């Protein structure tokens, strides 16, 4: 190995020592020793610095190539192309990779990505959020126009960014492209999961006066749920049974739209969730629930059983009137023409009806939150509620509904104090 143009004898000696240290990393492995020698020759011929000893040592721990480590951007592009998950998940990952990960981390060699880089990305996202909010609040119309239609990156999106990167790096670890720990797993995502807030009387009053909603996730009280269902029964009888089912038992929108007729056993007062209708763009697609916990049985109360029984009889009348034109979708909830409901259409009808009823606004998904909140407030065990919702762990249920579980803890504390106080009164 020959190189000219070094500034001093000391620099030449250090480079020789570095080359020897690199060759020593291979030990008696002749194949790896040859690969390291090739790297040294290539660096010298190109007039580039010799490879870093620690970097080559790290790569030797796996069995991948020692040269041509891809950048984060190059790896993520290949990773997306080789994913074997459903199209909707891939579409979400692609958006995150293109909008956030590649612009902030794309040029970093994959094996040099550290937690500091990821923290810097989230800090940059926070600064961008502040700039967007400041521009939206600017008195200058020209400044406001620069962020027209632009939204800050919220807590849920930040969590999805971290989850996407963590998944990609876990796959890189499995391929032995990188070794050690996953830097994304060591970074805490800024912003917490939004906690459901109940539309209590004071909040409703303030909303009517100011038009401001207290938080991104709002849930109705049991009285408000009843008011909505009574209004829906009269003004949207074709969708009322589905909304009743969602409000009482808490399935997701796609699970309600995709409920199979064969999985509704009204004589046994139960349904099975093993199908859903998701939207890929706007295209509805039937598929299985994403997780094992998502496949579950939902027991029905007497009232819901009556509503679904009446709906099934009404649906039979629709089918009789349609005759041979009635489509065989296999779905339980269908439109009067027999075709399945598009999830987006169900959401749009829900929003419109909430406005017409004069109720405080919630999302359709928040009917699910209302069902969980009412169940917890009624004293239903959190494990039962977690299984009803299809959560993988009770921790997720507890974290999501912590405002409700705190209330239950206070009630438990008062119950213990009342019992002790009663004993003390008798002993006195």
How would you summarize the topology of this molecule?
Elements lengths: L8 H16 L5 H16 L7 H8 L11 H11 L4 H19 L9 H22 L4 H5 L9 H20 L22 E2 L2 H10 L7 E2 L2 H14 L4 H10 L3 H5 L6 E2 L4 E4 L2 E5 L2 E5 L8 E4 L2 H21 L20 H15 L7 H13 L4 H8 L4 H7 L1 H26 L1
Parallel strand pairs: 1-2
Antiparallel strand pairs: 3-4, 4-7, 5-6
Helix pairs in contact: 1-2, 4-5, 5-6, 5-8, 10-11, 11-13, 11-15, 16-17
Structural notes for this entry:
The protein is mostly helical. It is built from 18 helices and 7 strands. It has 3 domains: 52 residues, no CATH class; 115 residues, DNA polymerase, domain 1; 215 residues, hpI Integrase, Chain A. Helices cover 57% and strands 6% of the residues. The mean pLDDT is 86.
Poorly predicted spans: none
Please state how the strands of the largest beta sheet are arranged side by side: 3-4-7
Biggest sheet layout: 3 strands, antiparallel
**Structural class by secondary-structure content:** mainly alpha
Distance between the termini: 96 Å
Tally of discrete structural domains: 3
What oligomeric assembly is this protein in? Answer: single chain
CATH class of the largest domain: Mainly Alpha
Beta percentage is 5-15%
Broad shape: elongated
Number of helices: 18
Average pLDDT: 86
Q: What CATH architecture label of the largest domain applies?
A: Orthogonal Bundle
Helix content: 55-70%
Q: For this structure, what is the CATH homologous superfamily of the largest domain?
A: Intergrase catalytic core
The CATH topology label of the largest domain is: hpI Integrase, Chain A
Radius of gyration: 30 Å
Q: Count the strands?
A: 7
Succession of helices and strands:
HHHHHHHHEHEHHHEEEEEHHHHHH
């Amino acid at each position: 190995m020959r190189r000219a143009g070094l500034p001093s004898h000391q620099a030449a000696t250090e480079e020789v020592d570095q080359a020897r240290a690199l060759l020593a990393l291979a030990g008696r492995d002749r194949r790896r020793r040859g690969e390291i020698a090739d790297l040294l020759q290539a660096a010298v011929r190109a007039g580039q610095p010799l490879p870093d000893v620690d970097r080559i040592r790290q790569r030797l721990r796996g069995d991948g190539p020692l040269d041509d480590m891809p950048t984060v951007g190059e790896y993520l592009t290949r990773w997306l192309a080789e994913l074997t998950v459903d199209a909707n998940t891939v579409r979400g990952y692609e958006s995150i990779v293109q909008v956030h990960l590649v612009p902030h981390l794309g040029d970093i060699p994959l094996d040099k990505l550290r937690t500091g880089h990821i923290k810097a990305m989230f800090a940059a996202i926070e600064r961008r959020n502040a700039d967007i909010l400041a521009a939206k609040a600017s008195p200058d119309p020209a400044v406001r126009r620069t962020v027209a239609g632009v939204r800050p990156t919220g807590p849920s999106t930040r969590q999805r960014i971290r989850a996407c990167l963590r998944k990609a790096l876990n796959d890189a670890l499995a391929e032995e492209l990188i070794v050690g720990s996953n830097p994304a797993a060591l970074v805490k995502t800024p912003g917490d999961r939004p906690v459901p807030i109940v539309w209590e009387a004071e909040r409703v009053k303030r909303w009517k006066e100011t038009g401001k909603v207290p938080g991104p996730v709002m849930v109705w009280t049991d009285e408000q749920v009843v008011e909505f269902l009574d209004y829906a029964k009269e003004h949207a009888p074709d969708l009322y049974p589905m909304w009743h089912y969602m409000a009482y038992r808490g399935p997701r929108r796609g699970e309600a739209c995709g409920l199979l007729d064969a999985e509704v056993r009204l004589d046994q007062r139960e349904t099975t969730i093993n199908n859903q209708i998701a939207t890929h763009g706007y295209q509805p697609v039937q598929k299985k629930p994403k997780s094992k916990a998502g496949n579950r049985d939902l027991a029905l109360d007497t009232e819901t059983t009556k509503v679904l029984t009446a709906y099934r009889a009404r649906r039979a009348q629709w089918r009789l009137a349609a005759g041979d034109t009635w489509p065989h979708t296999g779905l339980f909830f269908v439109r009067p023409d027999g075709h399945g409901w598009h999830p987006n259409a169900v959401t749009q009808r829900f929003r419109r009806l909430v406005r017409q009823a004069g109720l405080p606004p919630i999302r359709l998904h928040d009917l699910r939150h209302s069902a969980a909140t009412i169940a917890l407030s009624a004293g239903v065990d959190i494990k039962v509620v977690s299984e009803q919702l299809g959560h993988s762990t009770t921790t997720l249920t507890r974290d999501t509904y912590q405002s409700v579980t705190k209330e239950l803890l206070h009630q438990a504390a008062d119950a213990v104090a009342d019992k002790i106080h009663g004993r003390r009164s008798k002993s006195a």
